[in-house]
Design brief:
Blueprint lengths: L14 E3 L5 E3 H4 L4 E6 L6 H12 L1 H6 L2 E7 L3 H11 L4 E4 L4 H6 L3 E2 L3 E2 L2 E5 L5 E6 L4 H19 L1
Helix pairs in contact: 2-6
Length: 157
């Protein structure tokens, strides 16, 4: 199996529609801020809802540390819109229908069926600085990403 994107790799660029229908290009979001990009299996499932709400609850902390959180799954933009509204999500959810971006990052499937849950921290230059892959340790995605983001903030001086 092809190895996925690792720390030190350049993050593959992409453009995907958000829950508002806006086309979002990754490399246009970088430069001024770090991007915490998290791939998750599906809107409105218990683990994904818990993870989205945990990112929501830490949103200000990420913003203060100079990071933008972006979630990606293969749900439609319309479905993302309802999910974001129901849970008051203040960040972008991108629709990767067909899973092309997920494949470009090498996000693994669980049991060959369920799309995996992987978080990437991408610095201002577009380099992946941290990868965390776990279907179950939802809170660790947020904790580890925040730790890396704070470290990058210190580097900026």
């Amino acid at each position: 199996m092809a190895q996925g994107i690792q720390a030190g790799d350049t993050a593959p660029d992409f453009t995907l529609p958000s829950q508002t229908g806006e086309q979002v290009r990754l490399h246009e979001r970088l430069g001024e801020r770090v991007v915490v990009l998290y791939f998750y299996p599906k809107d409105d499932t218990p683990g994904c809802t818990a993870q989205a709400c945990a990112f929501r609850d830490s949103h200000e902390v990420f913003a203060e540390a100079g990071a933008e959180v972006i979630g990606i799954s293969s749900d439609s933009a319309e479905r993302h819109s309802g999910f974001a509204e129901r849970h008051g999500l203040p960040f972008l959810l991108l629709s990767d229908q067909g899973g092309k971006v997920r494949k470009s990052y090498g996000v693994p499937s669980v049991l060959g069926l369920l799309p995996g849950r992987v978080t990437y921290v991408i610095d201002r230059k577009g380099v992946v600085r941290h990868v965390f892959n776990s279907m179950t340790a939802v809170d660790k995605h947020i904790e580890e990403a925040l730790e890396v983001v704070r470290g990058l903030q210190d580097e900026q001086g």
